[in-house]
Amino acid sequence: MEPTNQKFLERVVSQKALQMGSSFPCQICVVGFLCGVCLTSLFLAVLTSVGTFGFTGISFSSLSMGNSPLNSSSEIINVITSSDYQSKVKETARWVDSKGREPESDDDERVSLLTEAWGALLADREPEESEFSKRFGLSKSSLPNTPHLENCKLSAQVNKRLDTRSGAGRFPPWTTWKGSLNMYPATETDENLRSFKDQPLSDGAYPPWIVGSDEENYPLTRKVQSDIWIHQHPVNCHDPNIKFLVADWEKLPGFGIGAQLAGMAGLLAIAINEKRVLVTGYFNRADHDGCKASRGSWSCYFFLETSQECRDRAFELITNKEAWEKGTIKGKDSYKSKEIWTAKVPRVWGDPWSYLQPTTDINGSLIAVHHKMDRRWWRAQAVRYLMRFQTEYTCGLLNVARHAAFGKEAAKMVLASIDRDWPKVITNQPKSEIEEFVWSNHRPWVPRPLLSMHVRMGDKACEMKVVKFEEYMELAHRIQMHFPHLKNVWLSTEMQEVIDKTRSYPHWNFYYTNVTRQVGNVSMATYEASLGRKTSTNYPLVNFLMAVESDFFIGALGSTWCFLIDGMRNTGGKVMAGYLSVNKDRFW
């Protein structure tokens, strides 16, 4: 009987449901519900596809910001303006893993909060304390340490001290003490320490911009860098025996930054051979609003090649007819183009290029001897000197790039090491002396090992053999076979097709700047003009410096840009990392 009653009740309920479903009001409700589901799905699909730019491995949203206080370019990796920072992050910031899934961690909100709060400090106008607190419910002092960002103001102060003669023409404090330790207060009161720091350059000290031992750099790098600095910074720039070579950076259409650096390396060689102080003039790529006070000058991006005193003296002599007649001053027009581009390499250090370490791999073989070895060695030394110290502006560009690429990973690491109740529970501890004067000298964190890859295609085919992206990745796989923990790639390229192909390599994490790239084959000059001067200068320099700091590098030696990156790495402690190239330099 019980089963019969149950079936009867089911029939009654089914009939009632059928009658309700057949009624007009109910049909309207069902249709409306289904329409709402469709519209919501469509809206979410559009929202998650707009404003993001992808990394295979990490897809990260386009954040928009104007010029940062660190003078960063919004076109490089767009970061958010102060006024709309929080709202835009909430609208657009979304991270997914390599499989396209949303993160499932319970700490997502804390990670997002910390990432956004760090980013706010990089905005165009750093928010006031009250504004910051209102937005994030935090004080700036309550934010944990940012391992991937550099204190640009402090770095610029330290570097200026290391690049300037002190009173009475004394040498900069190039002791065996590093970085901020030279500013440790106790050394100013201890007579023995002060005497040690004030003594002339000793054999044990070397230029603080050189990393690693002699064996980890090109031969004689530390001595050469020291000698170039001394040559370029005479004690008395008004000494009548001091001669000058004043030259603007090359500005012919079609000349990239690499060609400009190669040309200036030739002029520096001429200056050393003729015992002249090189003074650089107009740098067209710095002629944009981001450079502000140093507009049109190399000093927008890197420390100048000589002291301000020598620059003032040289520009004073430019208007002196007698100085030109006596040869006290010369300009770029005093030399033929060939004399500049194929300048005689200074022989004051002998021929150290004759024993360069064979660490360049082409087609599976190391290149021990090749043509123009002297030029390769010299350009590396010249570019390293010209780029020896970054300005606060360049440091800021790198901060923006690292935060955009690695900020969320850094936040996860930091939050894993502090109280799980942050930001509800905040423990503010003053910086200890070891943090301020010792650990502050460590380079900003990036996910390591990191492989930098510069893929040059497009109009470069008229100068060298270009190869497909797949061949670059074959070389990457060779490195990974020996270093299986390698999976991170900083990719620089002007071609959109290269970016598109990264999707075919889901087991690699690709990071790259958010900039419009070439579709099809156009000249580099046309492409750079489409980006504008600021973007076409800032984003390549960021890629260049990231390549220099990476653990490994794959490029094309037929490209001047890759050639110079290789030189910077070989004077930056990276010789034994090797270099895998898809082709030879066109002059070898």
TrEMBL record:
One GO term of the biological process aspect: protein N-linked glycosylation
Transmembrane segments: 28-55
GO MF entries: alpha-(1->6)-fucosyltransferase activity
Gene3D superfamilies, alphabetized: 3.40.50.11350
Chain segments annotated as coiled-coil in the UniProt record: none
Source species, domain of life: Eukaryota
Keyword annotations from UniProtKB, A to Z: Membrane, Transmembrane, Transmembrane helix
Protein name (database record): Alpha-(1,6)-fucosyltransferase
Organism: Gossypium armourianum
